[in-house]
């Protein structure tokens, strides 16, 4: 990824049905962008003809954090909990967010992404908005005051901390990619400048989001190491036996790397 690019996160929020909800979302997105973060939401920034859980699952593997923006979707004026039981409870004047907040937050949590949970102060504290079921801090917000995102330390502070965690997650993912290529290179002789150069080229293409180019190079590499004689000739091993010794291990590792790149390219 180039330095000018922004780090992607997933933003979970129901479609706004009030102006104040849209204004709050826009202010949040604006602050994210000022910090090098771009928010992704199904139906707003990316689309799919598949059932919603499928593209969301794919996107969770691509992003480096998830922000849950819980705002009023349902207003329960009067109801009953556990109707027909020995201990029914009367419910009055309760507010709930979209159920997708809970679904998407759970998927992000399972993926190990840093979570930012913003909850409209009047929402009923259940599911992801229940402080007792997870370790992430829940920030209560007032949708009528979007300026609080940058003016209220009690809200800006947790957002900034989460942004730090997102950037850390991104850096660690980049380091992991670097380690994969180092591991691949280490399987080859130290004087194998040809293969080392081509693996480094894959790494450079990957960092610049040129996934198709990276996959093309790996395809050529796999074709080059299909037999011991060819790997010996092309990559300057001292003899064919030495090439045969590393061939199986190298092909296994390179094939796994190739599959991971193809999977990542597919979700883009």
In short:
With 268 residues, this protein is α/β, with parallel strands linked by helices.
Report on the structure:
This protein is of the alpha/beta class and 268 residues long. The protein folds into two domains: 7-169, Rossmann fold (3-Layer(aba) Sandwich); 187-267. The chain has nine helices and seven strands, in the order βαβαβββαββαααααα. It has helices at residues 19-34, 53-62, 99-111, 148-151, 153-186, 193-207, 211-224, 228-234, 240-267, and strands at 7-12, 37-40, 66-70, 74-81, 89-96, 115-120, 138-141. The strands form two sheets. It has a five-stranded parallel beta sheet, sandwiched between helices. Strands 4-5 form a two-stranded antiparallel ribbon. Helix 1 (19-34) links the parallel strand 1 (7-12) and strand 2. Helix 2 (53-62) crosses helix 3, helix 5 packs antiparallel against helix 6 and helix 8 packs across helix 9 (240-267).
Keywords:
alpha/beta; 9 helices; about 270 residues; globular; Rossmann fold; single chain; 2 domains; five-stranded parallel β-sheet; about 15% strand
Write the SSE topology.
Blueprint: E1 7-12, H1 19-34, E2 37-40, H2 53-62, E3 66-70, E4 74-81, E5 89-96, H3 99-111, E6 115-120, E7 138-141, H4 148-151, H5 153-186, H6 193-207, H7 211-224, H8 228-234, H9 240-267
Parallel strand pairs: 1-2, 1-3, 3-6, 6-7
Antiparallel strand pairs: 4-5
- Specify the structural class: alpha/beta
Quaternary arrangement of the chains shown?
A: single chain
Counted by DSSP, the helix tally is 9
Looking across the biggest beta sheet, what order are the strands in? Answer: 2-1-3-6-7
Counting DSSP E segments of at least 2 residues, the number of strands comes to: 7
Described by the principal axes of the CA atoms, the overall outline is: globular
Would you tell me the overall average pLDDT?
80
The ordered H/E elements are EHEHEEEHEEHHHHHH
In whole angstroms, how far apart are the ends?
A: 13 Å
Helix content: 40-55%
The CATH class name of the largest domain reads Alpha Beta
Radius of gyration (CA) equals 24 Å
Characterize the main sheet.
5 strands, parallel
- Named at the architecture level, the CATH assignment of the largest domain is 3-Layer(aba) Sandwich
How much of the sequence lies in strands comes to 15-25%
In the CATH hierarchy, the third-tier topology of the largest domain is known as Rossmann fold
Q: Uncertain segments of ≥5 residues (pLDDT<50)? A: 187-193, 227-232, 234-238
Counted up, domains total 2
């Amino acid at each position: 990824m180039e330095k000018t690019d922004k780090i992607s996160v997933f933003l979970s929020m129901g479609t706004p049905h009030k102006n104040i909800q849209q204004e709050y979302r826009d202010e949040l997105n604006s602050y994210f962008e000022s910090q090098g973060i771009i928010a992704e939401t199904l139906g707003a920034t990316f689309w799919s003809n598949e059932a919603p859980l499928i593209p969301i699952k794919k996107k969770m593997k691509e992003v480096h954090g998830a922000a849950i923006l819980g705002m009023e979707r349902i207003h329960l004026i009067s109801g009953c909990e556990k109707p027909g039981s020995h201990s029914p409870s009367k419910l009055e004047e309760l507010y709930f967010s979209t159920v997708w907040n809970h679904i998407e937050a759970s998927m992000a949590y399972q993926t190990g992404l840093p979570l930012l949970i913003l909850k409209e102060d009047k929402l009923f504290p259940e599911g992801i908005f229940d402080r007792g079921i997870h370790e992430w801090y829940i920030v209560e917000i007032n949708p009528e005051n979007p300026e609080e995102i940058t003016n209220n330390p009690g809200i800006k502070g947790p957002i900034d901390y989460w942004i730090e965690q997102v950037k850390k997650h991104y850096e660690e993912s980049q380091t992991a990619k670097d380690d994969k290529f180092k591991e691949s290179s280490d399987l080859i002789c130290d004087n194998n400048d040809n293969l080392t150069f081509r693996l480094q080229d894959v790494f450079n293409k990957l960092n610049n989001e040129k996934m198709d180019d990276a996959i093309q190079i790996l395809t050529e590499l796999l074709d080059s190491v299909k037999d011991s004689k060819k790997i010996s000739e092309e990559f300057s091993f001292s003899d064919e036996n030495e090439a045969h010794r590393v061939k199986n291990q190298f092909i296994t590792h390179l094939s796994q790397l190739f599959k991971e790149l193809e999977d990542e390219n597919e979700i883009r």
